[in-house]
Amino acid sequence: MKLLLHACCGPCSLEPTRILRAAGHDLTIAYLNSNIAPAAEYVRRRDTLCAWAAGERIPVIEGTWEPEAWEAAAGRVGETALAAAGGDVLRCAMETSLREPRCRACYRLRFEEAARLAAEQGFDAVGTTLSVSPYQFTDVIREELERAAAQAGVNALFEDYRPFYDEATRRSREAGMYRQNFCGCRFSEAEAAAERAERKRLRAAAREAEAAAHAEERAAEEAARTAKKAERAAYAEKQARKRAALKALREQQRDR
Ligand code: SF4
């Protein structure tokens, strides 16, 4: 099958392309990601993907980077959710209901573009590498891919690549690929930073609690040692008194 594979970056493309090629598909990658911000990040991911794809002889089509279009489609959804969370970025990161509508709008924008392109350029189907990430909404990806494909009149080739995420991570590390630490949009960058800060805070609190527990343990041990020492001293004093009394008795008997 002649397949247009939407890809978000190089590391996420490794395993899906291996699997799809093994199944005999003729692949072209579509880098259509107006979600990625800032521009330098967009370029860095694109260049990493293109350098790897050139080595694999997989053609890459790049779309137009239109952050304004992404803001109009998904950014405004993200702003509404953030306002509903009272500006709490960490809450947005943790609560699916706050994040999912934004990601759905983001998938929709990118898949509609990919499906349109697939139809225009005579591809049989459109697919995506997004479903390799366990941090994405897999079911929503499927729904939106199928929806966009039906709308454009091409087939959707959805696969859940999550079981291959660890292997993709290993291979991309081994290949020295640039590996980003946030999904792509400005919200995800702030959320990833908030999650890292929260993890750091929790680790520090756990260390503090452990140190306090150890200090308590040490204080209890010290108190036990002091009590034992006092007990030994009292016993020694009692014995000394006994010895002195016996000595005095012996001296009295001798003097008689
Ligand atoms: S977190 Fe990722 S999928 Fe969700 S809106 Fe941001 S870039 Fe899109």
TrEMBL record:
| PANTHER family, per the entry | EPOXYQUEUOSINE REDUCTASE QUEH
What is the purpose of this protein? Catalyzes the conversion of epoxyqueuosine (oQ) to queuosine (Q), which is a hypermodified base found in the wobble positions of tRNA(Asp), tRNA(Asn), tRNA(His) and tRNA(Tyr).
Q: What is this protein called?
A: Epoxyqueuosine reductase QueH
Q: Which pathway does it operate in?
A: tRNA modification; tRNA-queuosine biosynthesis
Q: What is its EC number?
A: 1.17.99.6
Please indicate which superkingdom the organism of origin belongs to. Bacteria
Q: Which Gene Ontology terms describe the biological processes this protein takes part in? A: tRNA queuosine(34) biosynthetic process
Q: What does the UniProt keyword field contain?
A: 4Fe-4S, Disulfide bond, Iron, Iron-sulfur, Metal-binding, Oxidoreductase, Queuosine biosynthesis, Redox-active center, tRNA processing
Task: Specify whether Metal-binding is a keyword of the entry.
Answer: yes
Identify the stretch(es) annotated as Disordered: 213-236
GO molecular function terms attached to this record: 4 iron, 4 sulfur cluster binding; epoxyqueuosine reductase activity; metal ion binding
Report the HAMAP family cross-referenced here.
Answer: QueH
InterPro entries in alphabetical order: QueH (IPR003828)
UniProt record similarity statement: Belongs to the QueH family.
**Sites where the protein binds [4Fe-4S] cluster:** C8, C9, C103, C106
Provide the disulphide bond pattern: C183-C185
Q: Which gene name does the record give?
A: queH
* The species this protein was found in: Gordonibacter massiliensis (ex Traore et al. 2017)
Q: Extract the Pfam families matched here.
A: QueH (PF02677)
Reaction catalysed by this enzyme: epoxyqueuosine(34) in tRNA + AH2 = queuosine(34) in tRNA + A + H2O
